[in-house]
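> example.struct
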């Protein structure tokens, strides 16, 4: 019983310097988390760092892109010191582009069909870490947008039984409105950027995190050649 409890509360590192400390040691194993924010706030970078951290410890990672192709994602990450190409060549990280699956044929897919394809990929790759980027455009590409919460809840339960830790990336369209996946996920991390006294300010905020005591205030964040770095201090 104690061993089972240890597994339930096992933490996995995000790979983001400074963030694990704010999360009480990292993310909980087998949970699904939402990372949201405006364009250019560092969401994809954080997702790649999460997968690379797993790959370093022989946890296979899968990046599932809804819109961007693998080439674009790789090109965007090459200026970081991630050594991403090594992990791709060694198959410790695999990138999938779902745009062809979603657009093929004359009929829009349902939420269930898209998430079943995501499940198939995860099982095929025996992935332990998954990043899905992003659910936001799917709301306009599926036949049944009203079924989003039900199908995502089903996917979350499945990932939990498989002990897969996942990050879903979403675009923050309106700061005062929450999406279905934010309600059902175990945590929500918001990435911000805004101008203050003619300077660009970057910040990160742990809006929700089940099973972890956390500070909900914005924290200073930088994007460096090593990726996203978080500081336990106010952003200004």
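> example.seq
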């Amino acid at each position: 019983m104690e061993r089972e409890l240890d597994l339930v509360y096992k933490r996995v590192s995000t790979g983001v310097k400074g963030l694990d400390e704010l999360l009480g040691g990292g993310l909980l194993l087998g949970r699904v988390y939402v990372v949201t924010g405006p364009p250019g706030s560092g969401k994809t970078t954080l997702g790649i760092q999460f997968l690379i951290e797993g790959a370093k410890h022989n946890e296979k990672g899968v990046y599932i892109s809804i819109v961007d192709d693998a080439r674009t994602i790789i090109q965007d990450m090459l200026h970081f010191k991630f050594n991403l190409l090594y992990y791709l060549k060694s198959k410790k990280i695999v990138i999938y582009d779902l745009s062809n699956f979603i657009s093929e044929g004359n009929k829009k897919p349902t939420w269930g069909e898209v998430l079943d394809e995501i499940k198939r990929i995860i099982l095929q790759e025996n992935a332990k870490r998954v990043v899905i980027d992003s659910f936001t455009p799917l709301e306009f590409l599926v036949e049944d947008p009203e079924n989003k919460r039900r199908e995502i809840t089903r996917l979350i339960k499945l990932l939990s039984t498989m002990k897969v830790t996942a990050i879903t990336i979403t675009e923050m369209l309106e700061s005062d409105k929450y999406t279905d996946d934010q309600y059902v996920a175990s945590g929500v991390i918001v990435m911000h950027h805004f101008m203050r006294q003619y300077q660009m300010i970057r910040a990160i905020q742990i809006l929700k995190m089940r099973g972890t005591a956390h500070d909900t205030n914005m924290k200073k964040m930088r994007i460096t050649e090593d990726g996203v770095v978080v500081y336990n201090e106010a952003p200004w």
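> remarks
Confidence is low (pLDDT under 50) at residues 1-7.
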